[in-house]
Amino acid sequence: MTTRPQTRMSPRHMVFAILVASIWGIAFVLSKVGLRSFTPPQLTLLRFTCAAIGVLWLPRPAISWRLLILIGLTLFTGQFLLQFFGIAMGMPAGLTAVVAQAQAPLTVLLAVCVLGDRPSRQQISGMVVALVGLVAISLTLGHGVPLAAFLIMLASALSWSVGNVLVKRIGKVDMLHLMVWASLVPPLPAFILTITLDGGYASILSAITSASWESLAAVVYLGFFATILGYAVWGSLLARYSAAAVAPFALLVPCVGAITSHLVFGEVFEPLRLTGMTMMLIGLLITIVPLNR
Known about the structure:
By secondary structure, this protein is an all-alpha fold. The chain has 14 helices and no strands. The protein is globular and about 55 Å long. The two termini are 24 Å apart. The model has no long low-confidence stretch (mean pLDDT 88).
């Protein structure tokens, strides 16, 4: 007999959900801090080397190596390597946190094409609103945001959405185990890029030994807190409660990222950009939060 997921979250678990969303939102800001000392390939290499340590204790999820590698390449390597390149090229951390959420409507579109899913009218409406928000943001490019950085960030969101669809095809799986084992994948391509672009193996050691303590702390935060702890708690909540009860808390991630970036870096959102960001969040809200409970 299967236990039906609960729909009403306890106050204690609400605090956990808010905590995870905050951890992930702050991660966008700390990515920028890490990039002060490390190149995008180096930061990707170090982040997921830290996260992959968990394979020493956690069993491999019951999926093929091929699928595990594909998930690692899309959900982690493509998403974060491109995201770090976008930030390094001038994409503000707060704006990055919001634009990354383009993965939600992109995931719905890919699920239609690949899995044959049929989006509801509500999801279609949400995607249209989010797209209008993206267009509004694109009209502000050149005002401190290079076009190339914006496009790379969209490519990051696309890679994330491909990974989401791959995970969806698996069905039920322990998310913590999957995320930790998928973390084995990014270090190799990141290492190859580091050797190719950053001046060889010695550049990694040089970057680590000369890095500021803030950048080193950012690596630990991204590897352990944002990856292992975040997915462990989020996965446990999804196992206990329905997706409809948990998913809305993900809306806090871009909000926390934007607010933290404003407080730490003084990031300013001009009216049109702020309007576009707000429309993207509204579109995300419409897409993932069911109206009929």
